[in-house]
Amino acid sequence: MPNQKILYITTEMFPYQEDTNMATVVNKMALKMHNEGNDVRVFMPRFGQISERKFQLHEVIRLSGMNIIINDLDQPLIIKVASLPGERLQVYFIDNEEYFKRKEYYFDEKGVPFTDNDERAIFFARGVIETIKKLNWVPDVIHLNGWMSSFVPIYLKTYYESDTYFKDAKIVLSLYNEKEADLDKNIGEKLKFDNILGLKALDNPTIKSFVIESMNYVDAVVKGDEFLDEDLNKGFIETNTPKFEYLDVDSINKLY
């Protein structure tokens, strides 16, 4: 069904990341929907490994300049944009010196998770939501990919609950096998600052527990990887949210 406004929120997308299933799937989904006549936008973090020169990223001044308060600190939000190489599909990048300049994604060179991964996810989620509102572009479908994206529906259904901007948008969550890591034990205090309380994931805050939590805040859950690890699959089986087994890219529009 063309003429839909489809927002992809992702942590990975080819060619900015290579050799992962998620990056490939998001690229193919977005391009397929774009080429079928839908209005498609993609949002992702501007990780330090993404070359601004190679991919011709440039800052969007009218969208940048906002501050997002994380853990009682003002963090400036920088928005960059690029066209997917060879395509007329716009990709927006959420950037911030403190959170995304480093060259690694979630783990340092020794494999230790960054202590501020939770703040980076909160900043990313709120940055996407605020920027979409500033664009004055209301999506019909929001499709989430990658663990950081799982903070978006949690915020939309709590902190932004009284905001009618996204009230008609349907939210789809794709599940992928991602490397597990603990999140900061004080994440509850940071979310409490935004009046977000009572999440089950706070009992044991990890990357996976927040993905599983977010299944309760979306309209549909779909397997992004054909076979999920034990915990994710258990969450998938137990959720009361409408769910779909793995769909190939050619079938994704059936979901929408």
TrEMBL record:
<dbReference type="Pfam" id="PF08323">
    <property type="entry name" value="Glyco_transf_5"/>
</dbReference>
<protein>
    <recommendedName>
        <fullName>starch synthase</fullName>
        <ecNumber>2.4.1.21</ecNumber>
    </recommendedName>
</protein>
<keyword id="KW-0808">Transferase</keyword>
<dbReference type="InterPro" id="IPR013534">
    <property type="entry name" value="Starch_synth_cat_dom"/>
</dbReference>
<keyword id="KW-0328">Glycosyltransferase</keyword>
<feature type="domain" description="Starch synthase catalytic">
    <location>
        <begin position="5"/>
        <end position="179"/>
    </location>
</feature>
<dbReference type="GO" id="GO:0009011">
    <property type="term" value="F:alpha-1,4-glucan glucosyltransferase (ADP-glucose donor) activity"/>
</dbReference>
